[in-house]
Amino acid sequence: MGPSSCHLLILIPLLQLIIPGSTQCSLDSIMDKKIKDVLNRLEYSPSPVSKKLSCTSVKSQGRLASCPAGMTVTGCACGYGCGSWDVQGETTCHCQCSVMDWTTARCCYLA
What we know:
The protein is α+β, with helices and mostly antiparallel strands. The protein has a domain at 53-110: Immunoglobulin-like (Sandwich). Helix content is 32%, strand content 32%. The protein contains two helices and six strands. The strands form two sheets. It has a three-stranded antiparallel β-sheet, with no helix packed on it. The model has no long low-confidence stretch (mean pLDDT 79). Keywords: Disulfide bond, Hormone, Secreted, Signal. This is Resistin like beta. Pfam families: Resistin. Its main location: secreted.
């Protein structure tokens, strides 16, 4: 191996130190910055109108309990431990047990 070959072997590692190590890393950092910039420009704007669920309970004697106008039944409760009920017309709770002392309707609407 001649002197020029030795110089070449020494010169190659030195050139690697001078040339930037990885263009991929700089490309990644540029892309990361671009993505962060775009995401920072996006704004979440919730609807200016937010609705609230408003509920009340209506208790009645007997087997039926009806919600006030504009409200919908979301649940029912029946006296005497009766667990059998149905909703009639979206506004009325109907307890199905034969003897019933009270019925309660849970009524809600979006305000």
